[in-house]
Amino acid sequence: PRRHTNLPAPHAGLIGRSQAVEKVRTLIAAGRLVTLTGPGGVGKTRLAVEVVSGLTGSYADGVWLVELAARAWSTEAGAATTGNELAELVAATLGIRDDASPGPLQGRRPRTLLDRLSDALRTQRLLLVLDNCEHVVEAAASLARALLRDAPGVRILATSQEPLSLPGEQLWPVPPLDLPADTADQAALRTSSAVRLFLDRAAAAAPGFALSDDNARAVASICRRLDGIPLALELAATRVRVLGVRELARRLDDRFRLLTGGHRGAPARQRTLRAMIDWSWELLTAAEQAVLRRLAIHSDGCGLEAAESVCAGAGVKPAEVLDLLARLVDRSLVLVAHEADGPRYRLLESVAAYLLERLRETEHERVRRAHARYYAEFAEQAGSFLRGPDQQHWLRRLDAETANIRSALDSAAADGDGHLMRRLVHAMAWYWFLRGRLTEANRYLTLALALPQDQPVRSKGAAGPAAGSAAGRVPDRSGTVAWRTGMSLLSGAPDGPARHSRAVLDVYEGIRDPHERTRAGWLLGFALTRFGDFAVGEKLLNRVLTESRALGDRWALAAGLSTRGMQTYVCGDLRASRREAEESLELFHESGDQWGRLQATAVLGRLAEIEGDYPQAARLHRDGLRTAEDLGLWTDASMRWSELGRIALLTGDHARAEEFHERGRRLAVEQGDQPAEEFAEIGLALGARRQGGIDRAESYLRRWLEWNRQFDAEYGAALILAELGFVAELRGDAETALALHRQGLAAARDTGDPRAIALALEGLAGARALAGHPGRAARLLGAASAARTSAGAPLPAPERGDVDRITGTLRAALGEAGFAAEYAQGIALGPDSELLNP
């Protein structure tokens, strides 16, 4: 009997495509032409065979696979393969003689082989698989068009790197296999179809191989770096027996020499990774090849504007890039994602590695410099919008281009191009600050300062103005020094900023550009105050405020006011703090800067807390948290979580207080922001002590005491010493408690904050009571009350636990009248009296 199929028997099971198989079968049932598209090696042929192997009983005249890549076509120079040539192969596959009856088409036009094939199939009911159409796509389209028109019982499933572009064609893009998440554990890895395929083929090549805790990371890395492309994974799996997975993962940078062990029975194009990509490359025109290899200079993809700028030149006009990109997308060599900011074009990692080799053979230096120039201009454009109403949009765009901008920075550094480097680092400095990328900022700012400051480097033959947009204004070196100093302080200079206060002022004085002075000067003042150097920080901020008012720089004025508002809050001048925060908020509202509004409302939230208006404080901090999360400002989000934790602590919700502080702590650790981490852990310590966990509280406090001392940060040290003193008192150790509270009082007096002074005096009262000196203790409590009254910040009820405990002890020791007399004497003496004898 005549065969009704020529489908090959699969040599291994199909993994990860079960849903696709069913959906493609549904498409075939609904329409007569279905095309599987996708990059080389993604498994289009294997999927097609699996799809149709389950349909052989549905077609009376069979299911037939026609392998269009099995022979060379049109060997004459310049000749194009025709539908007739393909018809010859189809006829041979189906066993149809090409001298078949002329049929009803005779007499209408000259008879062709395609006509005769259409006649022969006119009454048949069959499913035809046209495999690998991409290298003869025009001829394949002609063949399919004729058969669908003249043979109503024929259905076609095509595989191609690009569509046939015929009416009624249904496309099914075949994606790479799904990849494991970066954080996937061993159980999650097993759910990834890419991992399952690799494990299956590796076990076949190396019997006994299995996923384990020891090799899971390497397996996941291999699957990710090979983009989940089945052919690449199968080639890699054949190397497991010789190399093992860890060494295999390590050697993937040399993937084209490594992945060469395909099955002997496979087509030549599928025996090595390079051959797989060569097959696609050789089908391209010279212009398509040029755009594709230039696209590879981008890191993590690019937008259309970048592609038009960087991929043009040397035979390709900017206006031609879009059409060429569209053809490359159609050919499955470029992936496109339609994102909020427009299309984004990406390459699979193996394709990008191949193209970089091609680029290095031809025009790598020219394209690399064009890429660096484009992203310098992009960064400058983006940076100009980061302090206004479009802040969120441009933060998102810079996030998407982070890898490209790093490449541009590295390129400028490699070229020794100090001008381009300074343009880039100044454009990026505020973005780095907002994103908390202080290490990255320090690295590139330091590199920029180390480079020679001569004329920009230009690629050979480059037009003048293009080498930097006329050269966008090159920032002065003094500004670079200021930004580097500020970022260094924020990231924690080893010797502490307070010991370099004079040097910081000198840096500020050296900034030549007046607008740069106000903005970089604000950063320097902010950094100093964040680490507790209020004296020099205040001096700098006052200068910034004066100069920004004179210049009309309303952003620098608003930023300076918000920072000074926090500083005056810390130092206990609550009226000034509110005045400055409210003016800052109004200015930031005018400019539309959401980050700025976040800073001003943080101060107002703390003021509401001091006034005991906890609902208002919580509302302000929740609003701030939403803004921070919307903008992706995770350091600010950390601080807002901790602020909410403090409100929960004050309202007696200890479970939420711990949850919120812990969220703040985790975010701070992820961002490498030590002040935010300290703020969260001090909150955890306060909560632990109030619930009796004094050992846990002490472990947090001791760590941060040393850190504050490293930076001479007296405000932070004052709070920590007070808390440690209370821990010692609760343990019954009066001597240690006295020593700690005395240190805390000295630190508090250095800050000038009456609330910090009051806290230290309250702690000393507890220690004196424990040591058997109730009269002195009562006077200390009275002096503490006077300090709080002077600041307009009486101790709110939720924070009276320690004072009430100590007061109860003293009333029991002195009697009500004796306590009242000593307490009144303390009020009269005041917090600064030497007669207190703390």
TrEMBL record:
Residues 14-152 form the Orc1-like AAA ATPase domain. Gene3D superfamilies: P-loop containing nucleotide triphosphate hydrolases, Tetratricopeptide repeat domain. Residues 284-359 form the Winged helix-turn-helix domain. Pfam families: AAA_16, HTH_77. This is AfsR/SARP family transcriptional regulator.
